[in-house]
Design brief:
mainly alpha, 18 helices, 78% helix, 0% strand
């Protein structure tokens, strides 16, 4: 026989009530009833009414951490993140040993872009459960956004120890190594990602970029070609492929790679600049004045998009030199 969603929720709520009583934490009947009403209302997407019931429950019993936690859930669902965070904070204050409270708190602070508070919450979760993969992974991701790559590496390595077979963890570690300019370790981690997920487009692209940084342009070209095939709309993959091809003196192949990148993002100043270089190299070799003019036009557009780009004065001089058939 099937049970209705309401019956299931009420049953779960009554079980919770029994557990609370058995553990010596019996709540007032009124607070508990309001809490159960709130849970039922959330199941029927009556979130505004659920908030009212749960707010009344915590007013009746300020130490009712489960009610605070569910209140945080509902506020989060309503995208009221400040009230959600405040509710989760209260739940965590009352029950500082609840992993769930700190994971919830970290998630909401991250949504609010309050990364320092988010990473503090995830770090607390890690202390509660030193073997919790997601807590360590989320802490590492927050530290990356804070550009604290030392702590990102510490938490990322711990996540790797907990489970060495998670591609997302290996990818994060690889990117941290790359930001730290440790390209050899980055390459090892990217290769591990591809062992776990052979068609991972991010790993293909970033491993290709790592090889570019190490001046290994042939393997970079091969990987970036695969990255472009896996993600045809990835402007960076096309752009990096163009760069690797230029370094291999394959100008005729570099030009369509850059043109593909520009078709995706017409205002990418780096692509405009690099395409101009490719056009100019081909123009000089072929003594093609029209192609020179095309190169100059790309450089002008690049400077319009980003006037303060690196070596802008050098580009301005090149524009002057090659303009009007000079």
């Amino acid at each position: 026989m099937r049970h209705s969603p309401r019956a299931l929720v009420v049953g779960a709520g009554l079980m919770c009530a029994a557990l609370l009583t058995a553990s010596g934490c019996e709540k007032s009947n009124n607070a508990l009833n309001l809490y159960l009403d709130g849970i039922v209302l959330t199941e029927y997407d009556e979130d505004a009414q659920a908030v009212q019931k749960l707010e009344q429950a915590v007013k009746e019993d300020k130490k009712f951490w489960r009610a605070w936690s569910v209140l945080g859930d509902v506020y989060e669902k309503l995208e009221d993140y400040p009230n959600s965070a405040a509710s989760y904070e209260k739940a965590a204050e009352i029950n500082p040993n609840s992993l769930k409270n700190f994971m919830n708190l970290g998630r909401v602070y991250k949504l609010m872009k309050e990364l320092t508070k988010a990473v503090d919450a995830y770090a607390r979760a890690c202390r509660i459960d030193p073997n919790h993969l997601q807590a360590h992974f989320e802490a590492a991701k927050c530290y990356v956004e804070l550009k604290d790559y030392d702590n990102a590496l510490n938490y990322g390595r711990r996540a790797q120890q907990i489970d060495p077979n998670v591609a997302e963890v290996q990818l994060l570690l690889a990117q941290v190594y790359q930001w730290r300019q440790d390209f050899e370790e980055a390459v090892k981690s990217y290769k591990r990602v591809l062992e776990l997920d052979s068609k991972n487009p991010d790993a293909l692209m970033f491993l290709g970029l790592a090889y570019i940084k190490m001046e290994y342009y042939e393997p970079a070209k091969e990987l970036l070609t695969l990255a472009v095939e896996a993600q045809p709309d990835n402007v960076k993959a096309h752009k990096y492929l163009g760069y690797a091809l230029l370094k291999l003196n394959s100008v005729d192949e570099a030009i369509p790679a850059y043109e593909s990148a520009l078709a995706i993002d017409k205002k990418d100043w780096e692509t405009l600049r690099s395409l101009g270089v490719a056009y100019m190299l081909k123009a000089i070799g072929a003594a093609d004045e029209q192609l020179k003019a095309k190169a100059v036009e790309q450089w002008r557009l690049s400077l319009q998009v980003k006037p303060d780009q690196p070596d802008s004065e050098t580009m301005a001089r090149l524009i002057e030199k090659y303009s009007s058939g000079k």
